[in-house]
Automatic annotation (TrEMBL):
One of its GO terms (cellular component) is cytosol. The lineage of its organism: Eukaryota, Viridiplantae, Streptophyta, Embryophyta, Tracheophyta. Keywords: Kelch repeat, Repeat. PANTHER family: F-BOX DOMAIN-CONTAINING PROTEIN, GALACTOSE OXIDASE/KELCH REPEAT PROTEIN-RELATED. The keyword Protein transport does not apply. SUPFAM superfamilies: Kelch motif. This is F-box/kelch-repeat protein.
Length: 212
């Protein structure tokens, strides 16, 4: 990278990689960044992007709807509840206020656990082990239910929450095992028949299955 850093947000789109935010430790203390970069595999080099709206560390990144999203994190004043995304067609960042209004990043917590499946953004809330999906039109989150992994054990650290094709992948200490052994779970949407005035319809729900 052009700017060495840690605790930054990252995402990929095809063979391109994006990084933003993060921090460095210098003689005078921590330095937080609003800098962003894009890796171009053709030139094998990092290209600078416009600076973000906020400096932030411990933030999460994802790529959705053709845009690079940076979510949550912390700045010099504390936890950030806003997110922002980089629109390459406009070559600018746009702020999303109150994106994490109910779940700011605490000082001891991991970055937000987020993943994108089929252009839908999901979050695993570390304090409650709840799976949520982001409702883009209203800038709110809908709870989908608990996951069978103890993300709350270490404030989100030590848990992997990623997309795998059309499924979510969660790796961590199992909440259904007496030994809290490490386990791998996949989550996918299922369709449950339900009655309605016009006949039968379907209701999307989520289900977890042990992979290992």
């Amino acid at each position: 990278m052009r700017t060495p850093r840690c605790l930054f947000a990252s995402a990929t789109c095809g063979s391109y990689a994006y990084v933003a935010g993060g921090m460095a430790v210098e003689l005078n203390g921590e330095v937080l960044y609003d800098k962003a970069e894009k890796y171009n595999p053709e030139s094998r080099s990092w290209e600078p992007l416009p600076t973000m709206k906020r400096r932030r560390k411990l933030c999460a990144g994802c790529y959705m709807d053709g845009k690079f999203y940076v979510i949550g994190g912390r700045d010099e004043a504390g936890g950030l509840t806003c997110g922002e995304f980089f629109d390459e067609t406009k070559n600018q960042w746009e702020l999303i206020p109150d994106m994490l209004i109910d779940d700011p990043v605490q000082s001891s917590h991991s970055p937000p656990l987020v993943a994108v499946v089929n252009n839908e953004l999901y979050s695993l809330e570390a304090s409650s082990n709840q799976l949520k999906v982001y409702l883009k039109k209203t800038n709110t989150w809908k709870q989908l239910g608990p996951v069978p992994v103890r993300a709350d054990c270490n404030n989100g650290w030590g848990v992997a929450f990623k997309s795998l094709g059309n499924e979510l992948l969660v790796i961590g200490a199992s909440s259904v095992s007496s030994t809290n052994a490490m386990a791998i779970y996949t989550c996918c949407r299922i369709l449950i028949p339900m009655s309605c005035s016009g006949g039968l319809s379907t209701l999307p729900e989520t289900a977890f299955a042990t992979s290992f």
